[in-house]
Each structure stands twice: as C-alpha cells, then as structure tokens.
Amino acid sequence: MCMEGRPFKPFLHLEDLRKQDIGIDRLLDSNGQEIRDTDGILGLLHSFYKDLYSISELSPTTDQIQQFLGCVPSLLRIRSDTSALILPITEQEVLSTIKCL
Length: 101
Fold this sequence. Notes:
- The chain is mostly helical.
- The chain contains five helices and two strands.
C-alpha cells in the first residue's frame, strides 16, 4: 500500500521516460539540413508560419474576381432573404467581402 514500494517503481520509470519525449529536438529545413539548436528551430518555425499566413500569394487578380462575380447573382431571389434588405447587393460590397476573406 505504500507508494514508495517496489511494485510502483517500473511505473514511475515509464512515466519518467514519457516526460522526456515531449519536445521537438530537431527539424529539417527546406534544404534538408537538420537544425538542432533552439534559436535555429525557433527561426525555422517563425519563417514557416510567416509564409503560411502571408496573403501576398493569395491575393486574387481582377480577372479572378470578375470570373467569381459572374457566378454571384446581383439580387437575392428569395423573399425571406430580401425582407431585411432595402437595396440589392452591390458589386462593391461583394468585392470588399471577398478581399476580407
């Protein structure tokens, strides 16, 4: 019944092993080079997330916007949707909504 007894020792050892393997100790950069130091890993993660969330590559061109707008009706056709609106949806409203996504 004592926690310090021999039967619990293997379980405590397994718990210690589990605690040791919870961190990132190395990453591969875009060149396949292994990075092991903390500053290198942090820099690699920073540049990865900076590139992941950058919007420069995702900005739509005018042609893409016009192609998309060709599929969007300029008026709502269902009376329940239009009851809350005074005016039809404008092209400028659709463009500003798309650019905010």
